[in-house]
Amino acid sequence: MGVKFTNRCHPPNWGQEVSKTEDSQSVFRYWYQLARELGYCQGAEIREGEQWVLLSGNWERWESAVARGYSVEYLRKVLGRTKNR
To answer: What is the domain extent for residue 30?
Structure first.
């Protein structure tokens, strides 16, 4: 009786999960760049696998900040207005 090896190293949806994670990280990096440029965000860190941001002196989950209205679309709109002045 020997050990059975398979070529299957990752779960079936592993590629899709990696893609979703990379997409989420790309969106966060863009969001963070915009938020820093506008002076809204002063820092970011990972806590227990979740992205947290420092907005106006308070730490909160990034997803909560986006849900409250700090979306990429909103930040781009504000940045567009400030650059047009």
So the answer is: 15-83
Predicted structure pTM score:
0.70
With contact defined as beta carbons under 8 Å apart, do 57 and 47 qualify? no
The β-bridge partners of 53 are 44, 60
Give domain status of residue 5, yes or no. no
Write the pLDDT tens digit of every residue in 13-52. Answer: 434 444 555 678 899 999 999 999 999 999 999 999 999 9
Residue 13 CA to its chain's centroid (Å):
21
Q: Is residue 3 part of a domain?
A: no
**Total number of domains in the chain:** 1
Cα–Cα distance measured from residue 20 to residue 28, given in angstroms and rounded to the nearest whole number: 12
Residue type, 67: A
Closest C-alpha among 27, 23, 25, 16 to residue 75: 27
